[in-house]
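Complex record, two chains
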Amino acid sequence: MISVKNLSKKYQKKLAVDDLSFSVSTGKVTGFLGPNGAGKSTTMRLMLGLDNDGGSTMFDGKPLQEYPEPSKMVGILLEAKAFHPTRTARRHLRVLAAAGGISDARVDEVLDIVGLKEVANQKPGKFSLGMSQRLGIAAAILGEPKYLLLDEPANGLDPEGIAWLRQFLKDYADRGNAVFVSSHLLSEMALMADNIIVIGKGKLIASTTVDNLISNGGNANVFIRVEGSSKLERRLKSDKIAFEKVNGGLMVSGTTTDELGKLAYDTNVPVLELLTHTASLEEVFLEMTSGAQEYKTVGPESEAKTEEEA
Amino acid sequence: MKNAIKAELRKLLTVRTTYIIVIGCLLITALFAGYIEGVRASVPSLSNPDLLAGESKSAVLFVGLILAFVGLMQLGHEYRYNTVMYSLTSSNKRLKPFFAKAFVVALFSAGMGLFVAFFSPLCTILGLKIGGHVMGPQHFDYMSVILRCTYCVFAYSMYAFILVAIIRSQIGAIVAFLLLPLMGENILAALIKDKVHYLPFSSLQGVVIQGAFKGVSPAQNALVSGLYIIVGLAVGAFLFQRRDAN
């Protein structure tokens, strides 16, 4: 288990990570989510001891520096393009293998695993982002570490690559290892992760399972499409049930399909479609981090308002 | 530490820059020592008993500066390409990769200094033969030439290494390394006048060139530059340990 306690990092006056504590279990993929500037990368760097400040991170009860060969304990991918552009992929990995006390034979194994065997003797400076990510993943798994810390590993991967990565990380965790992975691809994270840690402005927002997060974080609504919806709308209003019109139907809150089906029957409107709408991880994430957005975009409506005000 | 040194050696030998710099230095040495001082040698220089020893010293003073870029890039590349995170997370002590780098840079530069010390006079001898010149009897104190040349290239490389360890930017360190001996020391020399041998790059000239500074022996100059290296490495190591990775 990785146990993170009271991590903090201050850049001049800005608190990038604020007393952050959580744990990462073995045998599971743990997703690490947060808006841009939330402090995800800084947290990972603090966990690895790359940045110095408050707090501690224990890997199986010990700091990483207490292991004689740390790269056999933790594999990292913090930046896809972290390699010398003219040193071939194989040589890049051989350098890392030497530093970690890992045999050169393992280099060819990992190149094969990530699908870069054909380009092993090419200079990675010419690699696409996806290929660079694969090389980064190869570097991370070089020492067959118990823990993998990956920062946005799916960036730049094609759909086949993303599917491969998802399965690979799930299998890696199933072998009793822990995978701690940050990503902005929330739909991907929903498929891949068992647990989720959400941070915003350097603070912990949630640390739970994906299922818990979705069921507790978002409101389960019911979508209904009927013939003559005005009749049902009047009934919902009289019963003080909240709803909104969407896609030719009604999205009704605070009810179930059973209750709404009966209500439609009582109101004497034929039901064409009736289904539970569960919030996606993306919806839950946006809802949870709405107050913790460091950088917000300005939508067309806001722009128009601003222009009017001007 | 063995793993860290092995990794640093691999880094040094698997980048194009190392070979470009080494080949460039050898070509420059061959051009100056072999062609200009050999093939096209002037008649008075042929009777100079220190012709060959002088060639060794001139060569290391010049190519030592260029070879130092290998030392600079051994650490500079780590910051430029962000590979420093791999170096740090592969080791259980932060200072291991730092001192492994310093050791490999020292080994490489001393070896190159030694090589250039003999390559340069060999080029001159070859150039003289090609040009059909005959030189007079030579005084070549092997031990003195070996020690001075090896130390000079080593010290240049360590200066460069220390600069990049402190500045943490490859470009910044290159600029500083070029400006310090050319401009920085000239300005300081105007201020401190007769104590120029206390400056880091000037003291190295005093190591290589006999009597460069009146009343100061090459050994004393070596001591001055050695102190700069020791203090610089200590400061670099302290910062490497205490600061964020990059």
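Note: The first helix of chain A runs from residue 40 to 48.
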